[in-house]
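Take a minute with the sequence and fold tokens given here and flag any structure token that looks odd. Thanks in advance.
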Amino acid sequence: MAVLPAVDCIFCQLIGEGTAHWVAREAEACAFTPLNPLAPGHTLVVPTSHYAGVFDTPPEVLAKSMALVQRVAAAMRTTLGATGVNILSASGPGSEQSVPHLHFHVVPRWEDDGISTWPTGVSSHHPTADPRTQLADALR
């Protein structure tokens, strides 16, 4: 089921207007370069339909988006000589999500490239129960 674009969503506007710097455009997902790339070739992959985040995206749309993420990452390795990639995504208000449209940053990486995309701190949240047990129980 297609979801209508969100009027106030910058990614929906870019997709609708066709004004992004496109890397790939497919029926279910597209890829374009961000305004402020972290590295040469940094690419955003987004579903073409509006979904706020991973929690409300149907599995089949998520799968199509991730398939494009994988193809973009492979192209970064073969054409840019990247020796690795970071795939970054945030969903929900507690995650520092900047645009409420599911998106994946695919950042090409090279040895000693001078950036770090890995968190350097540890969460200060203290759960009242064992998270592993809670998650395992929820997934049974």
